Each structure stands twice: as C-alpha cells, then as structure tokens.
Amino acid sequence: MPRHRKYLLIALALQLVMVLAGQVSDTILGLSGLFGMGIPLVVAWFYAARRALSLKDASAGGMAIGAVGAAVGLVLAISLTGGSWGLLPLGTLASTFTGWLGAFLGWLLKGRKAHTPE
Known about the structure:
118 residues; mainly alpha; 5 helices; 84% helix; elongated; disordered C terminus
C-alpha cells in the first residue's frame, strides 16, 4: 500500500468539498483555480515534511496527491457546470506540479531539520 494513500484521500476530499462549495458560493467558485492548486501544494508539503522519504518517493507521492485530486475534482466540476473539458488536462497538470512542489519543499524542510545542529 502506498505511503501517500492517506494524504491522497485528504487532498481528494478537500478538492471535492471545494467543488461542491463552489456551487453555492460565487467567491469560492471564483477562487477555485487558486484553491485547486493550493490544496495539493499544502497536503503534499505535509506528506513529505512528516515522513522520512527519499526525494524520489516524496516527488512521486506529491505528484500523485496533486494529480488524482485535481482530475476527480475537475471531472465533477465540469460535469456540474457544463464547463470545457479542455480544462481537464491543464488543470490536472498544474495541480500535479504544485503537488510535486509541495512535496519537494516538505522534503527540503525535513532534510534541513535532520541536519540542523542543536
């Protein structure tokens, strides 16, 4: 079972909540792109910062955290709003990148903590 499964499910749940909240709030709907990329950034950061991972494992987990939540969230959002399906690959790619970035930053933080003299 992948190490990142719990974090992937957290990111997925947050993405789905954001999409559904965007259906009732124009403010959230207007910020959905920012939230959609921010969720994997933060969740992947926690994933990598709280575990002893290699850069490869942190990167793979962060990318999965970003890609899965974004793809499912975008499919739901496009289905509910009748939006353009052309947004699916671009939005998924953007969240995959921010998931990787969050995991990379978390990995850096974890590495620095381990080597900081007390």
